[in-house]
Amino acid sequence: MQPAPGAAHAPSVATLRMPGAWLGMTAFALDVGLEQSAGAWAYRHLTAVRSVPPARAGEPRGLASPRGTKRHRERDISRAEPSTRWDPALYARFERERAQPFFDLVARLPDGPVWSAADLGCGAGELTRTLADRWPDAAIVGVDSSEEMLAKAAALPTHPRIRFVHGDLRAWRPEAPVDRIVSNAALQWVGDHEALLARLVDCLAAGGALAVQMPDNDDEPTHRIAAALWREPRFAAQLGEARAERRVQPAAWYGERLLALGCEIDVWRTTYLHRMRDAADVVEWVKGTLLRPVISRLAGAELDAFLSAYTERVRDAYPAGPHGVWFPFPRLFLVARRVA
Question: Does the N terminus or the C terminus of the chain have fewer Cβ atoms within 10 A?
Fold first, then answer.
């Protein structure tokens, strides 16, 4: 792995090297072969992202490990569902750890002139703003269906080349073809990925590129435990019908369809290994995403009972060691360039 320019003195808490994979507990980690300009952009912005709460000496940090393509799937309800609201403050609880995949994704996009770009599922907009630095000539639009997230984005200092709009990713189309489309941790909320990919590629200008990152962790203990509790009679009546368990397809599935759409592709899977203080921190993480529908539909003693049972099982699934709890988080990445 080549360090990003200017990163020679970036702190490295620990690095473990293994055949066919690496584990690096650093502020910034990218695969070999990145353009220097992209690496510098990513490193500069990632080191500026704070972790909430501020890390104390010896406190856990994020860790990334590229892995194979074993099938894990994200399971949750649609971002557009009105009964489930986003809490920007809760989502930002692990802001730096959530930001790392965004920079890893965008840094893999090809260089070249970029005049227009879209960030689908832009959330509160902080990461969208970094794209203006990556592409200094581009007009950029951030799209999200969450009014709460867009309210946070609207509170940011205005930028002459960035605007934020409310939109449903299931139907979004730009006014004119764009040079870059980025979607970080959003499209797992949208169904029918075959039609979705075809539409997004069709939204690209000739030579344009699409970059997608999706959590790929439906088989992880956090998700299996939540699914099991959801189906227990004491919670099922309030929570309603359990959601589909598979929202993300295997990596090769996306590769085949993007190639059929006439794209040059780069597909990979990375497991980020986050070191948390304890199991309660793991629960806090998923309360901002996976457990949103539970928090929206249960209240009082019922919600307390669900969270208590969930935390107890998570504690068993993620035992604490001398340095905290290791929390693996697999993610799937797709970069596709439209050739024609």
Answer: C
Q: Is 91 part of any domain?
A: yes
49, part of any domain: no
Residue 113's domain spans which residues? 71-270+280-338
- The Cα–Cα gap between 131 and 48 comes to 14
**Cα(285)–Cα(275) distance, integer angstroms:** 12
- Reference 327, options 317, 337, 313; nearest CA is 317
Q: Are 94 and 196 in contact (CB under 8 A)?
A: no
> How far apart (Å, rounded) are the C-alpha atoms in residues 8 and 2?
10
pLDDT in tens, 61-81: 444 433 333 333 333 333 334
- Residue 156 counted as domain residue: yes
Q: Are 325 and 277 in contact (CB under 8 A)?
A: yes
pLDDT band at 51 (very low <50, low <70, confident <90, very high): very low
User: How many residues in total does the chain contain?
Assistant: 340
Output the domain CATH number for residue 324.
3.40.50.150
Q: Residue 161 pairs with which residues in a beta bridge? A: none
Residue type, 290: L
| Segment 246-300, tens digit of pLDDT | 789 999 999 999 999 999 999 999 999 999 999 999 999 999 888 988 999 999 9
Answer yes or no: is 56 within a domain.
no
d(CA 167, CA 157): 21
DSSP code of 136? T
Instruction: Locate 148 and state its tokens.
Output: 């709460």
**3-class state of residue 82 by DSSP:** coil
* Token pair in block for residue 254: 């996306």
Residue 9: burial class (beta carbons within 10 Å; 0-12, 13-18, 19+): exposed
Give the total number of structural domains in the chain.
1
